[in-house]
Each structure stands twice: as structure tokens, then as C-alpha cells.
Request: fold
Amino acid sequence: MKDIAELLRQHPFTTELENEIIELIAGCASNVVFQANDYIFREGGDADHFHLIRHGTVALEMKGPGRDPLSFLTIKDGDMLGSNWLLPPYRWSFDARAVELTRAVAFEATCLRAKCEADHHVGYEMMKCFVPPLLERLQMARFQAADIYGA
Amino acid sequence: MLPRFLPVQRRIRETADVLSLIAEPPEGEKLPVFLPGQFNMLYAFGVGEVPISISGDPGERGRLVHTIRDVGAVSHALLQLKRNEPLGIRGPFGKPWPLDQARGADILLIAGGIGLAPLRPVIYHLLAQRHSYGRIALLYGARSPADLLYHRELERWRRVPDFQVRVTVDHAGRDWLGDVGVVTRLLPKINLDPADTVVMLCGPEIMIRFSTQALLDMGMNTQQLYVSMERNMQCATGSCGHCQFGPHFICKDGPVFRYDRVEALLKRDEI
Ligand SMILES: Cc1cc2nc3c(=O)[nH]c(=O)nc-3n(C[C@H](O)[C@H](O)[C@H](O)COP(=O)(O)OP(=O)(O)OC[C@H]3O[C@@H](n4cnc5c(N)ncnc54)[C@H](O)[C@@H]3O)c2cc1C
Reply:
């Protein structure tokens, strides 16, 4: 089986990361598998992990009283899942459900935050990996709010 | 040009606010040839006339198909037409999609919402002349699964070997197993040669702007991209000025434009 650092090197999220940083953060990571319909996390739960999806599909969902869950984004191969672990109160703000068999690398958030605090260069490089997908999702949320197809 | 009246033969409900009207000429009468991307002016008695793209198969000469979204007075009146009632038609008008120039290249179609209607004739053409083109792909975005046009055909196209079809919606319930998110997220998932691809886009202008930006970021140039501009018009012959878009008249110079010709205009608020 490939070691975690190798799996991380193959993931698009780490393309810009130095090898030493990949080796360092691999110490906080493990290989995980979710079956279809497993919840990876639920709204309100502790954001103590984040995931890099290797294969599969995860639906991000919101629930309202008397309403079926509504998916507002699907996360796929090569994507990053979850950012609430980055800053307090470290709490998930939506549900993440595997739609099919999904393989991912899971990071332990306390471990990763400690490494970023201990070496701000590591923290800054990690932040540069996180910001682009976050900005992309913010832009998508704007399009959804503007209801571009309906207007 | 005076409208010609053709009886509506069938009404197909596509979504809650979109219907396709199928009109057929009486026995022995011929329909004019149309090219994918062209539109007709459809006339509703006493209400007005609006441009609507032809959404049927250009190879099928016996019927004329238009897919219409109910957004205002004229489109609403058109969608009230019952079977055998006459539909007033002037056309076809406008510059078509560049299917001849695109021969031999890979083809990427990007549609948003009702924008799939003007691209459907392109799909029929590509599938009928499959050997003349390289790889072909359709990316289609809509508000929700209930807002997708041509459900059955999408399913059929998905099963066509060598036709990459990816659909995404802005939000969906559990019964939707496809993608949720903006249409540009599908771009990395398709297999085309960016240097030798012709892209045809039709949808809301916001979608056109962010999709073209993503295509340019992938290394394509503005001359590979074609957009259909569906801004409002009246005469359809370039004389009333209603649809003037900078130096262009959408009705006669468009609705299909190469992107470099309209890029600057699309970025301006008011024209
Ligand atoms: C070349 C071309 C091809 C078109 N093809 C189709 C088609 O295949 N199917 C289809 O349903 N529609 C199509 N349209 C758009 C259609 O012409 C308009 O929706 C129609 O003119 C609206 O007229 P109305 O009287 O029903 O509504 P109006 O009362 O004129 O308008 C109702 C609302 O719709 C908005 N609106 C009007 N026209 C447009 C437009 N062109 N784009 C975006 N918003 C608009 C108005 O701002 C208003 O908010 C096309 C337009 C063009 C220029």
C-alpha cells in the first residue's frame, strides 16, 4: 500500500506544497473509506477533521424542518472537504454525506493546527492551498444566491 | 416579412414554466431550411412578437420545434396555444453556430437553463455527422433537477458512446445522483484537446462570462469560443435598432458571435 505522504503528493490539493511540508503534515493524516450514505460529519458537530477526497462523491447538505435535505454542492475526486476546523468555534455548519463509496485522506485538526502554529511558514503555505477552493465556493454561493438560471 | 401561420400539433411540457411547441405545415407545404442557432419571430395575436430559437432537428423537415419559457406577456400567450391553433412565425433569422468551420475539431457545448434549446439542433447535427468531428461534450447547468430540459434525451445522449454529457444543478434533493455546483466545475472532468476545441455557449450572461473566463484560463483563446446573445429584439432584420449591442445588431449579425467580437461589450453594464 502507498504511504500517506505518497497519496498526498498525488492529490491536486498539495500541488504547490513543498515536499518537507507534505512529509510533515502526513504525520496528522490517515487513509479512510466511507460507504454510500455514511455521514462524514453533521451540522453542529465538532470540526475535528478535514478530508482530501481521493475517489468518490460527497454531497454537502442542509436540512430545514419539514423539508428533505437539500444538496448545495457535490465534492469529488481531487477536492478538499471542510474548512470549519481552521478557526474557532471549530463546528460544522452543514452535513457531509458520502453518495457512493468514497476514499479520502483524513487529517486530525488539532495535530495540523499545532504544526501550523509551531511553524508559521507551514501555516502560510497551508493557507495558500485552502484559500483558492474557499474562494471558488464563495463565488459559487454568490451565483446560487443570484439564481442565475431563474432570473 | 409577414408571419406564416402553422397549426400547433403537439405541446410538450419540459418543466413547470417551459413548453416545447411543435408546429407542422399542412400537407404538401414545405418548411424553410434552418441552421442550428437560428431563430424565428413567434407571433401571439394581439399581444406581440418575440424571438425564439429553433430547438428541433435540422435534419427533420416536416416539423418546427420551439422551446419557450413563460417569462412575460408574449411568451405566456404563446404557451396558451392549444393543438391545431395557429402559431405565427417569421423566419428563420440570424447567424448560425459555426458547425462548418468546426469540422475536424473537438466540440464543447456549454448550456445553462433555457440555453440548451438553441444548442439542441447542434447536438442533433453532431450526432448525425459524428464522423466529421473529434471528441464531443455537453456541459449543462440548471437551477434544480426539476428545471432540466429534455430529460429523456439527456438520458439517451448520456448512453451515446463517445459523447461526454455532464449535468450539474445549483441545488438538489436526495433523489439526484448527479453533480451539484456551477457548470465550470465540470470542465476538468471532460476529455478534449483545449488547443483544438471549438466551444459553443448559451445561457445567462453571468454564466457566459465566468465560463469563458475559465476556458481562457485553461489556455483556450477567444477565437475558439462562440456565444449566443439572447438579448431582446423587435424587427429581426436590423432596421429598428432595438437589439443593438455596441456596433452589432443581434438579430442579423448574431445571435451567435465569436467571443472576441463581443467580449468587451459583455463586460459593460449598459449598452
Ligand atoms: C435570438 C434569441 C433567441 C431566443 N430564444 C429563446 C428560446 O429559445 N426560448 C425562450 O424561452 N426564450 C428565448 N429568447 C428570449 C425570449 O425572446 C424572451 O424571453 C421574450 O422576448 C420575452 O418576451 P415576453 O413578452 O414573454 O416577456 P417580457 O414582458 O418582454 O419580459 C418578461 C421578463 O423577461 C425578461 N426578458 C425579456 N427578454 C429577455 C431576454 N431576451 N433575455 C433575458 N430576459 C429577458 C424581461 O426583462 C422581463 O423581466 C430568445 C431571445 C433571443 C434574442
About this structure: Chain A is about 35% helix and 30% strand.
